[in-house]
Input
Amino acid sequence: MKTNRLFALLTAGALLVGACSDDFLEVPPANSLGDAQLQTKAGVEGLLIGTYAALNGVFGNRFEGPNHWVTGSILGGDANKGTDAGDYSSINPVQRFDHDPTQGDLNNLWRGRFEGVARANKVIATATAIQDQLTAADFARITGEARMLRGHFYFDLKKHFNNIPVFDETVPPEEVILVPNNGDAWALIEADFQYAYDNLPETTSAGRVNKWAAAAYMGKAMLFQGKFSQAKTWFDDTMANGVTPSGEAYALLDNYPDIFNAEFDNHAEAVFDVESANNTGSTQNANYFDDLNYPYNTGPDGPGNCCGFFQPSIDMANHFRTTNAGLPLLDGSFSDPANEVANIYRHVFTDGQDEGTFTEDAGPLDPRIDWSIGRKGIPYLDWIEHPGSAWIRSFPYAGPYSPKKYIYYRSQEGSLTDASSWTRGYALMNYTIIRYADVLLMAAEAEVELGNLEAARALVNQVRARAANPQYWVKEYDDANANAANYVISEYAAADFADQATARNIVRFERKLELSGEGHRFFDLVRWGEAATELNRYFNYESQYLVTKFGGASFQAGKNEYQPIPQAQIDIQGSDVLTQNPGY
Output
């Protein structure tokens, strides 16, 4: 089911509330609603829909998208910016950690998330003002949804900027500008998720949050703070009892790519997602934030036809190398020349766009590589075999790969896409902020930190067992029984989880494989304290092949873990209110 969010856009202006006055000279702003219109059940429900709309971004900037393809995946080394050096060049310094507080996209991210906070606060304040007009169940649900969404917006701000202003619905709008960025965001985030869990129903309509989304998110908030025992309690509850808004028990989908396919939206693995829609009059209701993230220049043979951004990194592909026994190369040898995934990038730097002799990789690979990364010679969904350079704008700048998650199918063009704007690449699959495999792996992480290694192994193996089902591996177009590559994957034995350090490495590696390109990696590295080591290793490796992109790039510990507080916001509020993050 696709939720039409056009009403959300129409009600967004409701946050610009005009004051009532007898003075005929005081004219309410155009396209705004007054308190008298909002302070009804219909009015507060409309405000709530407007708050949901903010999940997808408010100002139409791609950094605002819920999938964090730049700030989560590209900064985490899952992918490169892609395309060429001149296109959307403001991303280049961000990926290299060379940017400063004047970076405009990050300012839009800040603005968009705080607009979400403001909308949630307006819902809570309005519902409280008209509580006598609402049933107890409606009041609990409306405020529960608003507080769940507010908790999400604050969580997003916290993981990006760390030091943020924190205010709730009791702070008058005119005083928000006086709130310094030294508040206890975690306390409010936890309180919001607890309230949502206590007040939201288990089942509701598609696209709305329920109590189990709040439980999973609370577990995630605890994990980010290192509160492993509390995190385990929330994850255990979610895994044992959690259901989707339609009442379906949470479960892993049998077929991994169905997670990213619009035909299966609101599936059993979706714990908290963002709905999308077409034919609403605005492509911002579709996945506008991904409109650049398709293979380049595909013509009618491929999706989008633009623009070659978000290319999976060479290093990311290498992570999918396995031993002959089907386990990852946990010692880091995936980047050794003998283990690199065979491709054409070595030829390109010698011969320009002449790919030379191409031989497909024959070594053992985790099958998730070809659900996650578009590789030359491998079927690309239901389009064609990935042709290599024909779909890549610049090999020397961005490498040989194309994104493959959250890409629409040939059979869906025009029905599950919105082609009303400049590109065909507005797809309608929901973006899943939290999915069940993520919950399983976060629970496994908590178990490792608590010393429960066998419990962690069982959770990791649930994820790997799904990937190991050969029925769903990528097959050749001309032979449905022939695997497209040499896929080898197995579950972990008890001996593999022999000690805590090894188990920790396994769980963290599994998150890399399972969730690649989904916006999680950078934030994982930061909370693990591994960002400097891992990202400088990544720069050193990737710069061997993408010299222009990464030569001299580095991550500075103590600075680059968080984004700078946007200078535009400091200019508005004053340096005596907003303090800049260290190092900027």
Summary: The longest strand covers residues 270-274. Confidence is low (pLDDT under 50) at residues 1-27.
